[in-house]
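A quick word before the example. In earlier lectures we treated sequence and structure as two separate objects. From today on, think of them as two lines of the same record. Here is Oligopeptide/dipeptide ABC transporter C-terminal domain-containing protein written that way.
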Amino acid sequence: PCHPYTMGLKNAFPSILGDKQDLISIPGSPPNLVEPPPGCRFNLRCPFSIDICFQKEPPLFQVDTDQYAACHRFSEADMLRREAALKEIWEKVNVAA
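And the structure line, produced from the sequence above:
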């Protein structure tokens, strides 16, 4: 994924393989689609949001033939992807065994 919110969603998906692990939960509520917030719709839930994310709608970038991402930090996607996987920036939710 190239959008930090999508990275969080991917991290939140449980695996049926291997040992049981804590699930990752994205803090907050999904954005209001009827009255979206100014700027990026995911700015309140994204741990990587910066000032511009709250002010301007992000530009749309073509990632692949049929894949797009709208993010002000698109050029930093590789670094953000590594950070999202390594740091405990997403809220951990303990799942009973």
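Notice the following. Residues 93-97 have pLDDT under 50 and may be disordered. We will return to this example when we discuss secondary structure assignment.
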